[in-house]
Amino acid sequence: MWIPTEHEKYGVVLVSFRGTVQHGLPLEIGDTVQILEKCEGWFRGFILKNPNIKGIFPSSYIHLKNAHVKNKGQFETVIPVEDSVITEMTSTLRDWGAMWKQLYVKNEGDLFHRLWHVMNEILDLRRQVLVGHLTHDRMRDVKQHITARLDWGNEQLCLDLVPRREFSMVDPDEISVTELYRLMEHRHRKKETSAPASTHHLFVHVKSLMSTNLGEELEVFFHIYDGRENRPLSERFFVKLNKSGLPKSPEKTERQCTLFVDLGSSDLRKDVYIVVHIIRIGRMGAGEKKNLCSVQYRRPFGCAVVSIADLLTADSKDDHLLKVYACNTESEWYQIHENIIKKANSRYNLSGSNTGLSVALQLLHGDIEQLRREYMVLFTRGVSITRKLGFSDVIMPGEMRNDLYITLEKGEFEKGGKSVARNVEITVYVLDIDGQILKSHVAAGSGEPGGDEYHSLVLYHNNSPRWAEQIKLPIPVDMFRGSHVRFEFRHCSTKDKGEKKLFGYSFVPLMQEDGRTLPDGTHELIIHKCEENTSLADCSRYLKQPFSKTNLPSNNQTLKGTKESFWITSFLCSTKLTQNGDMLDLLKWRAHPERINDSLSKLKEIDGSEIVKFLQDTLDTLFGILDESSQRYGLKVFDSLVHIINLLQDSKFQHFKPVMDTYIESHFAGALSYRDLIKVLKWYVDRIVDAEHQDHIQQVLKASEYIFKYIIQSRRLFSLATGGQNEEEFRVCIHELFMSIRFFLSQENKSTSPVAQTQAVFLRTFPAVYGELLKIFTVREVAGFVRETLGTLPTAVHADCLEAVKLQCIAKTVESQLYINPESRCILLPVVLRILQAHMQEQRDLVMCARILTSMLSLIKKEENGTAEPVVSEEVELIVESLLGVLLRTILEISNRPQPAGPAMRLQFQDVTGEFVACLLALLRQMSDRHYQQLLQAFSSKDNLRDFLLQIFTVFRILIRPEMFPKDWTVMRLVTNNVIITTVLYLSDALRKNFLNDKFDYKVWDSYFYLSVIFINQPCLQLESFSPSKRKKILEKYGDMRVMMGCEIFSMWQNLGEHKLNFIPAMIGPFLEVTLVPQPDLRNVMIPIFHDMMDWEQRRSGNFKQVEAKLIDKLDSLMSEGKGDETYRELFNSILLKKIERETWRESGISLIATVTRLMERLLDYRDCMKLGEVDGKKIGCTVSLLNFYKTELNKEEMYIRYIHKLYDLHLKAQNYTEASYTLLLYDELLEWSDRPLREFLNYPMQSEWQRKEYLHLTIVQNFDRGKCWENGIILCRELADQYESYYDYRNLSKMRMMEASLYDKIMDQQRLEPEFFRVGFYGKKFPFFLRNKEFVCRGHDYERLEAFQQRMLNEFPHAIAMQHVNQPDQTIYQADAQYLQIYAVTPIPESQDVLQRDGVPDNIKSFYKFNHIWRFRYDRPFHKGTKDKENEFKSLWVERTTLTLVQSLPGISRWFEVEKRELVEVSPLENAIEVIENKNLQLRTLITQCQSRQMQNINPLTMCLNGVIDAAVNGGLARYQEAFFAKDYIMNHPEDGEKIGRLRELMFEQAHILEYGLAVHEKFVPQDMRPLHKKLVDQFHLMKSSLGIQEFPAYVRASPVHFTNGSPRTCRNSVPNIISPDGGRGVARRSYPAVNRYSSSSLSSQASNEVSNITGQSESSDEVFNMQPSPSTSSLSSNHSASPNVTSSAPSSARGSPQMAEKHKHSRENACLSPRERPVSAIFPNPLDPAQRAPCHQIGDTTLPRSDPNLSAPDKVRPTPSSWSLDSVKEGAPSFSDSFGKLQCPPVPPRPPYSAGSSAKNMRSQSPVTSRSPQKTTVPPFTPSPTECQSTSLVSNSPVLSGSYSSGISSLSRCSVSEASGTELPAGDHPSHPLPPPTTLPNSVSSSSDEPIRRENKTPPPYSVYERNNPRRPVPLPHSLSIPPQTDPPALPPKPHQLRTGSMKLDGTSDPRVPRPRPLPRKVSQL
Question: For residue range 63-76, what is the model confidence (pLDDT) as tens digits?
Answer without folding.
Answer: 998 888 877 776 77
